[in-house]
Amino acid sequence: MLRYVTTNPGKVREAERYLPDGSVERLDFDYAEVQADELGPIAARGAREAYRHADAPVLVDDAGLFVEGLDGFPGPYSSYVEDTLGIERVHEIAADLDDRRAAFRCVLGYCDGEGFAASPDPVDRGDRDAAAAAGPDEERGAGGSDGTDPLPVKLFEGYVPGRIVAPRGDGGFGYDPIFEHDGETFAEMDTDRKNAVSHRGRALEKFAEWYADR
């Protein structure tokens, strides 16, 4: 049984669209989120911590909104920025930019305590199906900072391009009202439409293809 580490049941329902029936369940576990400029190390560290807690295969995700004209801000800090500045303020900042292109990115981190073949990069920018993460520096080498052996983590990235617009729509959550993809904001899309194009869905599709042979 695969444990999807999240407090959001909706994420598990989305995962169930890509994985065999009864193969995934939600694990409510509050792992420590490290500070990093990329999503990969955050998901990798969370997957290791969750695996040690659950002693079972786990899947952790980290996601963010990356605005091109703001050098990727808010990126990995999206949740904090949403809580402190709010999405309307992010739109106001982006509205003054010449380049309002943006992307939602999601990285899934999988850990089951076993090793696997990997490409050298923490996240495979060539958009191959998966890549492995070495993790934060303190977990490299002979062992982790807590004296344990470093655990292999496989990462899968999903990406959806769009642009920042004035808030529209009543659905979704987070930055959905200000993120437009293909003429609609995520908040204007119904659940099926959003899941079909979402960054998390694209990462889950890659993961499911790989996991089927695991």
Automatic annotation (TrEMBL):
<dbReference type="InterPro" id="IPR002637">
    <property type="entry name" value="RdgB/HAM1"/>
</dbReference>
<comment type="similarity">
    <text>Belongs to the HAM1 NTPase family.</text>
</comment>
<dbReference type="GO" id="GO:0009143">
    <property type="term" value="P:nucleoside triphosphate catabolic process"/>
</dbReference>
<keyword id="KW-0378">Hydrolase</keyword>
<dbReference type="InterPro" id="IPR029001">
    <property type="entry name" value="ITPase-like_fam"/>
</dbReference>
<dbReference type="GO" id="GO:0047429">
    <property type="term" value="F:nucleoside triphosphate diphosphatase activity"/>
</dbReference>
<dbReference type="Pfam" id="PF01725">
    <property type="entry name" value="Ham1p_like"/>
</dbReference>
<protein>
    <submittedName>
        <fullName>Ham1 family protein</fullName>
    </submittedName>
</protein>
<feature type="region of interest" description="Disordered">
    <location>
        <begin position="118"/>
        <end position="150"/>
    </location>
</feature>
<dbReference type="GO" id="GO:0005737">
    <property type="term" value="C:cytoplasm"/>
</dbReference>
